[in-house]
Predict the 3D structure of the following.
Amino acid sequence: MKGAGGALSRAFGGGTARRGFDPWILVLVGAWAIVALLLIWPLWSVLMASFRDNDTGALSLTNYIDVFTLRSYRRAIGNTLLAGLGGMAGALVLGVTLALVTTRFRIRGRVLIQILAVVALVSPPFIGAYAWIVLFGANGVVRQGLASVGIDIPTIYGATGVILVFAFKFFPHVFLITSGALGAVNRSVEEAAEGLGLSPLRRLFKVTFPLILPSITAAALLTFVLSIADFGTPRLIGRDFNVLATEAFMLFGTEMGGNPGMASALSMVLIGLSMALVLLQRRVTRRDVYAGNLMRKPFVREATGWRGVALHVVAYAIVLVGALPAITAVIFSFRRTSGPVFQPGVSLQSYERVISTVSTPVWNTLVYSSASVFAIVVAGTLIGYLVSRRPQPATAALDGMLMVPYVVPGIVMGIAIITRFNGPPLELTGTGLVIVMAVFIRRLPYSARSAAAALKQLSPSLEEAAISLGYSPARAFLRVTVPLIGPGILAGALMSLVTAMNELSSSLVLYVGSTVTMPVRIYLAVLDGEYGLASALSSILLVLTVAAVAGAFLLSGRKQSSLL
Amino acid sequence: MSRLDIRTIEKSFGDVRVLKGVDLTVESGEFFTLLGPSGCGKTTLLRIIAGFQRQDAGEIVVDGDRIDARPAHKRDIGMVFQDYAVFPHLTVAENIAFGLRARRMGDADVRARVDEGLRMVRLEGLGQRLPSELSGGQQQRVGLARAMAIRPKLLLMDEPLSNLDAKLRVDLREDIRDIQKRLGITTIYVTHDQEEALAISDRICVMDRGVVEQVGTPFEVYRAPRRRFAAAFVGTMNFVAADSDGGRVRIGPLTLPVAAPARDGFQLAIRPENVVVGAPTDGDARGAIRLEGAVRKITFLGREAHYTLSTPVGEIVAQVADPTRELLDVEGRTIAIALPYDKVVLFTAEGDATPFGAAT
Ligand SMILES: Nc1ncnc2c1ncn2[C@@H]1O[C@H](COP(=O)(O)OP(=O)(O)OP(=O)(O)O)[C@@H](O)[C@H]1O
Ligand SMILES: [Mg+2]
């Protein structure tokens, strides 16, 4: 190797010394190729498209001017912020409350609470939205029930509904992240504050929350990004509550005449919002929080009397409402239907319909998600290895690039991929491959991160020992490193499978008739009011999801917070 | 049985020159120790020999063959690591067999070699255990057996005992020494513990800041240091400043002729156990530098006592073996001491030992 290759192999000085080259260079080159092909190139195309006038095709700022001047777009931006901040606030309140109650008081059935929280977390994306409609929509069961006894409640539709759904959909993230942090707050610090005369409530705000601020802000960022990226919820229960994600999708759909330039500009604004929040969160958590090594576990109080009852009610109410959509979907999937209308009685009609007429989405989902997970695991493990074991500028930059998918909403990723692969040089639209590609690039960073984290726990001298015993670096990696990080990787793979099976937003942009996936089909069924079919499909998806999650938990020894 | 030649190895990390032209020869079957303070480049040199890092310049030659262009896994060099690096997913026996499998050795031979290895490191009967069921000392024994099993040309050990407690350290170092002698594998051992180096080595290489200061047997390094750094780093040493005085150096009341051109900055060195305390006022006055010292402190340690003395040439620590009752009562008094010429080493300002003539 001369020239660039030589320079590269010198940069890899941490590896083995030799004249030839380190096989990891191939991995580095391959990883950059993937990032360039699936991330930079498509996003670049969207960026370029956003500067293109839809009528003339000339480069211009028209789209951006429209975004910030036209009323409906300004409303969408405002609504997006409202939904994002509202969803975030709601999820924070619910999640932190639940975390406090369960870590500071002895609550009966903590395991059940955690399981319900996880069910809420992994329920297919807008099972939520649709189950809420079934319960609180115009003809919703609960609404009608209450109306028959003379109580009128507003329908779930609109901004309030969207925010409520987000809050109950995303609070488990907050719960899992902050309960870990709350369990690690040194009891002495809290006691010291009490000794200084702070009331319990003031102590909570003055001492405890600042101590777990990094976790709270991380959870807040996550829920905000998830909320503004969510497409199904505002679409199904927002009604005229338009957000950037729905606007971008509508503008992109060619059936409506379409305006790809405008859709691209809205996508860019959406990415911008996410990035702004990431930067904000970085600023807030700049201050270090010290973890003393003299750790005393927080004190867990008995919850007795009226206060005990109240605490139990709060905890169970939160998780039950959160898991309600999943539970509803399962129950409704067994109800008798006649066309779109539910009838009294139990039946397997909906499942029969799935088997007889809509089995394609089930197979597609299984095939696409296993294909993408396979690719994610292989690429993620290799990239995680590069990042943790071959520190040098090219890998650090790669790690940085892999931050990007965290802030790119699925709908935008879908638009980016279809924009890029809609025509020459690579025409892939309409294939299952594009759906796999979108899921792959969206979830690759999670897998790479968790592989890197697993590798950081492993001494580099293990591989060196194998090499000194006569194994080539590649064989040493396969014989020593892979078996050791294997269980962690597999657990991560199952969690990737969960997200891949439930991917809606990017698939919705990329699907055609023959490549419909389960989430897409559920979405279409709900839009058509075929709730029975939607329920049955949702239940199938839920069962697959729960199976994957259970497998992941078994493999990782039930350390769920490290998985999600 | 292999001989190793290291020729002018250079290595820099960025602007920092970590190895500055290291030249060494390790004889076949020798137990050779790299000794030096933290950060002096011991690990770097070892990793370059192993092939995990590449030198900027210089050659590594084993039995006349240059090996520095070969990848690490083709160098046939065994390694023992500070953190043991025992494969946690394999049993003790599988760990020991790991390198043999890479060499496609037959099953029967592997079993024989593994049994032999287990016996050698005294882990008989533990072959089916997983490393997590072993103590640190036992894990390092596995590391040793695993490296030895492939009968490497060279065995490299980077502070293999530094994670063990004191008692285990002594036990295991004796075993390492015995096994190495029995198999005759040329071994390079890294440590910054000078006592360990003295106890275990055939020869010691004292390094400082990427430079070889002195190579010699433990006796030579301790008794006849060639460099001031080696004298100071290995064991305890008294240093006394010596001024120049017309071609001679002056120590307290007397002057000595020196071979090197006498300049300022000379230092005279003597080990505490070589300082003669309570020397007779007459007798062999010619063979020693005689001084008076006020006894500031006596520390009695049973087998020996340490004296801290203020003398006209500075503070001197003396060590008296098996001290008598009378000698322990002299605190606060002034006593006579003698520094025998044959135990004194004189260093130039550059840090080189230089001969000096007896006083006339
Ligand atoms: N990969 C590296 N990049 C930059 N500097 C390095 C690297 N490896 C070692 N160094 C530097 O080279 C010098 C020598 O390091 P080395 O590890 O060889 O020392 P050592 O003698 O083994 O020390 P110790 O006794 O602490 O193990 C140190 O100053 C160290 O900081
Ligand atoms: Mg070292």
